[in-house]
Design goal:
CATH architecture: 2-Layer Sandwich
Largest sheet: 4 strands, mixed
Helix content: 40-55%
Strand order of the largest sheet: 1-4-3-2
Number of helices: 3
Shape: globular
CATH superfamily: RelE-like
């Protein structure tokens, strides 16, 4: 059975980096955060337009879901749901916009 979503290769790398960073201090917390991110992605599949747009980051019709301090950027019109990236929400908007531009 299909999961209903797919990760951009760089989004997969984002998750690995997040997990590795948190795991340096607390491996259990790292697993919990990654699990919450995947739970949120799975909840987005049936209702992909439930979250907000960020016109300050991209003109593309992407949506953004917040999990703790991480933003999940995804394309709600794609099937399977296409996760573009997962970024720390405190990153500079310019940096986030540049990351998204490179992932078209």
């Amino acid at each position: 059975m299909s999961s209903g979503y797919a990760l951009h290769p760089k989004a997969f790398s984002d998750l690995e980096e997040i997990r590795d960073y948190i795991a340096q201090k607390n491996p259990d917390a790292a697993d919990r955060v990654i699990s919450e991110i995947f739970d949120t992605i799975r909840r987005l599949v049936p209702f992909p337009h439930q979250d907000h747009q960020r016109p300050d980051l991209t003109a593309r019709p992407l949506r953004f879901a917040l999990v703790r301090e991480y933003l999940i950027a995804y394309a709600p019109e794609e099937r399977p749901l296409w996760v573009i990236g997962v970024m720390h929400g405190r990153r500079s908007p310019r940096v986030m916009a540049a990351i998204l531009r490179r992932r078209e």
